[in-house]
Amino acid sequence: MSLEINGVRAAFGGLVALDDVSLTAEPGAVTALIGPNGAGKTTLFNVISGLVPPERGSARLDGTELIGRSARQVARLGVARSFQELRLFGGVSVQEQTMFAAERSVLTRSRESRARATEILDRLGLSAARRSLAADLGYGQQKAVSIARMLAMNGRAWLLDEQAAGLAPREYELFCEVVAEAKDRGLIILLIEHNLRLVKDLADVVVFLDRGRELVTGTAHEVFSNELVRSLYFGERD
Ligand SMILES: Nc1ncnc2c1ncn2[C@@H]1O[C@H](COP(=O)(O)OP(=O)(O)OP(=O)(O)O)[C@@H](O)[C@H]1O
Fold first, then answer.
1. Nearby residues of 85 by Cβ (< 8 Å), 6 or more positions away
2. How many secondary structure helices (H) and strands (E) does the chain include?
3. pLDDT in tens, 81-101
4. Ligand 1 centroid to residue 112 C-alpha, Å
5. Which of 7, 5, 11, 13 is nearest to 49 (CA)?
6. pLDDT for the residue numbered 190
7. Are 5 and 23 in contact (CB under 8 A)?
8. Closest ligand 1 atom to Cα of 36
9. How many angstroms separate the CA atoms of 161 and 144, rounded?
10. Would the keyword Disulfide bond be found if you checked this record's keyword annotation (predicted)?
11. Of the ranges 59-63, 94-98, 143-147, 186-190, which one carries the lowest mean pLDDT score?
């Protein structure tokens, strides 16, 4: 039971964004994808979530193939995804968009979605903002709404694209707590991060991508002390 990526290749015209990438994200663990800009991290999320068709390869969630399915089908199979640019419905209240996410989810029935949304907004400190439009909120709160929607979807796997970037200290702490709780519930968590402190704090496994290739996989300590990673990512030379 895991999210297994095998031999994924994806190209945009002549540009190979992912070149034979394989990795496994286990349940109850945080797997962090790191690497320089353009390494292919977001493209891998797009392949898993049905937004970019790969030329070849597979992505299996608990044995079920995700490649070839639409983004909606992948979401229904339990993959909840956040975007760097958040993609909230700006003109919809915080409560409503959390409920919409709950209604699209795998497990929650529509009559339960209001109670579920209320509980989630409480957990994320968004109760007072529940009637606000997402577009009227500050950046940190908009990011919390995007997490609220992921929680509401009740998925099996989370793909988090730079969710901690730009958060205030209290928001950052809350984000780490929510991820740790999801991990304790046995979710599969894959996250893209440039914030190395967060990677050290949260990641059980770190995968280093560079120019579309998975180069090093290990614990944060192993990956951050790897010479190749140090020269390609941290710009260190002998
Ligand atoms: N829709 C697209 N059309 C053409 N090229 C694309 C498209 N999406 C991504 N690319 C290219 O694919 C490569 C990988 O991009 P990707 O966004 O996956 O990298 P990344 O590791 O997520 O980078 P960053 O850390 O900057 O977000 C880049 O060279 C990028 O320009």
1. none
2. 9, 10
3. 887 666 776 677 877 777 777
4. 39
5. 5
6. 97
7. yes
8. 25
9. 13
10. no
11. 94-98
Looking from the CA of residue 13, the nearest atom of ligand 1 is 4
CA–CA dist 63, 173 (Å, integer)? 34
Mean predicted confidence (pLDDT) in 173-199: 93
Residue with tokens 């929607």: 149
Quote the CA–CA distance of 197 and 206 in Å, as a whole number. 13
Q: Within 6 Å (CB) of ligand 1, which residues are found?
A: 12, 15, 17, 35, 37-43
pTM: 0.90
ipTM score: 0.96
Contacts for 225 with CB less than 8 Å, ≥ 6 apart = none
Contact 69, 58 (CB under 8 A): no
Reading the block at residue 135, the tokens are 């577009």
Closest CA to ligand 1's atom 18: 40
Nearest CA to ligand 1 atom 16: 40
